Fold this sequence. Notes:
The chain is of the alpha/beta class. The protein has 16 helices and twelve strands. The protein has two domains: 2-207, no CATH class; 233-451, P-loop containing nucleotide triphosphate hydrolases (Rossmann fold). A hairpin with a 2-residue loop joins strand 6 and strand 7.
Amino acid sequence: MIDEIVINIFNELNSSDLQYIVLRNYEKFPYDVxxxxxxxxxxxxNEQVQTVITNxxxxxxxxxxxxxxxxxxxxxxxxxxxxxxxxxxxxxxxQFWVSCEITNFHRxxxxxxxxxxxxxxxxxxxxxxxxxxNFYIAGAIDRFILLVRQWIFKKKPIYQTQLKxxxxxxxxxxxxxxxxxxxVPSICRNDDITTKYLKKFILKQWGxxxxxxxxxxxxxxxxxxxxxxLAPMVYITGPDGAGKTSVSTxxxxxxxxxxxxxxxxxxxxxxxxxxxxxxxxxxxxxTSDNKFSQDPAARKFRFIMTEDITDRxxxxxxxxxxxxxxxxxxxxxxxxxxxxxxxxxxRYDAVVVETSPYDIFxxxxxxxxxxxxxxxxxxxPKATFGLLLKADADVIAERxxxxxxxxxxxxxxxxxxLLSRARTNESFFEIRTDTTFEExxxxxxxxxxxxx
Length: 452
């Protein structure tokens, strides 16, 4: 059954417009795929390749499911119901590569970005037919260079055998003669010598076309991305205990899968004015300024920037005044901190904000300041998309015992109003966090893949 799936996967890939090459361990295809199938693809085609692979399962009557998404790979499982009612289960791990792990070497070639490097590898690909299975592999010289790199990484005897076989071909032999290399042991004596030869091979194979051509390819690749001026920005919002840290981790892994550089920012309201106030607080009161103390003398400066999950309304004018001062400071801090956030986005690093800036109007039992919400919420920079973490109030209250279910439900009600005022509610997507983490992670990945 494994051979049918493998043949079908490559038939589907070959009939599509997607570009790929199988890197290694394909000698026993389609009957044996070892631990996984290693294929090189462009990062921008990651999602499409996954779709093709899951469709290949479906074409043979398997109920397929991508059970896990990893940094550069997927585990695809399928179950097929046989005519007699029995079931057949099958799983294949597909490992995706987008840089071939020779970053430090190809950076020494002016203008040769790894995206261009992949394009050149795929351009030299060769079609191989093996036991009824047709798939593409790298050209002979490219395979030889990549195997030299693998020898440095993992010194498997099979690699030397394969290098010897490739060296016997005319194209590889002619290539190596330029470096006076006649046999494999002369290359693989030790890591220093192998690395020295590897650099020479890479410069010759992928750097000989000229610096201007490489820069031209890089510029063409850049233009083909059709990217916007700013990199994407993602907001995560939800009450304390809703699972922001777990979802943030899943989001980070999804961005890694898509090969998107990103910066993680816990909050955009805590870095400037807030820190200055804390410094002033220590200057004036030293260690005696304890916001948790029950002694009023020990918390004289408590009326500024106190954020405590148990800091509820005590029906005093001072409490509401303190909350108003805190909100005004937070609003100012948010707009100040969007300066470095914008810098990251101009540099084309996606930004993940774990605590949405809209939370400043709601969290820590913030009372309703309708005028401030109406004025400033529409001015907050809008995210590419947001993740609204939803869970049953009783479930969250069980995780975060300092909160009551009514307070959690009130948070969601106020957030709906706030996002409407900010005209951004359509860009927020609901993520259930009272399910299994695997289901939550899959939901996050589907949204990220669709929006980015």
